[in-house]
Amino acid sequence: MPQTRSIIEIKRDPKDGGQGEHGPIEEVSIIARKDGDGFIVCAEEHNCVRIRSCESSHLVKAIRLLNVHNVLYVLSAVKCVELYREVVELLGGEGYV
Which of 66, 78, 83, 89 has the fewest Cβ atoms nearer than 10 Å? Predict the structure, then answer.
């Protein structure tokens, strides 16, 4: 399977000059590649995790480790979009969307 590449723009509130609780506006490159029974997902090139299933608790842990706050991009890269609502609930108000 070829690599999937998405660019995520994390938007910040313009009222605070783009400085939100997580810093300035930034772009993060998400790269996902098939690896055996799962995916290896990298935020940029050096921050990578292996995701083997669409189990919500596993996805939450991976998203926290990747430090990417746009949950939908990560879930779509590993074909687990149907768990979006459950994963966001488990992340519970930590700035994830």
Answer: 89
